[in-house]
Amino acid sequence: MPSETNDAILVERAQKGDRAAIDTLIVRYQGKAYQFAYRLAGNMDDASDLVAESFVRVYSAMPRFRREAQFSTWLYRIITNCFLDQRKREKNRQHQSLDDALAVNPDQPQTTATSGESPSEASERGERERIIKAAVERLPEYQRAMIVMYHVESLSYEDIASALDLPVGTVKSRLNRARLSLREALEPYEELFRA
User: Fold this and answer.
1) What whole-number distance in Å separates Cα of residue 108 and Cα of residue 130?
2) Fewer C-beta within 10 Å: the chain N or C terminus?
3) Domain count of the chain?
4) Where a domain ends, among 92, 126, 147?
């Protein structure tokens, strides 16, 4: 039985008050939810907070879920909304201690050489990954969400449109603008990305 069918059955049961059904959905999607949240937030603590807040919202909103989209698409929308809400709260605070500004990020994944790579190739790959990650993090939040949903999570235009409650044409044009913004941010490093 395809997972989409299983999800639909679990959602229906959850909407009727079956706590085991919603628990099963949460367990099934916690890994994907965390990966998506991490790609949006850029660190483990914020990603964990996003996932926790998202699942609280899923639990409270489950009776109102209209099932016009797949559960996974609805979950991506909730995570994206939690991320955008978190960014708004952060902008309102706008302060950072000197210690925080100077701290080394322990959540930053360390790049290791893959088989067959020389140390210089591994170093270049690591530098490219770091530059891309930094460029994506500098994008406006809605553009970052679009880039991650399409290029990392491999969601279709239709799934993104459903997740963000936007027309497909708007998704395509905003994703195109996000790609252009990313390309502009990476222009100073053009030499590093040539094959």
Assistant:
1) 9
2) C
3) 2
4) 92
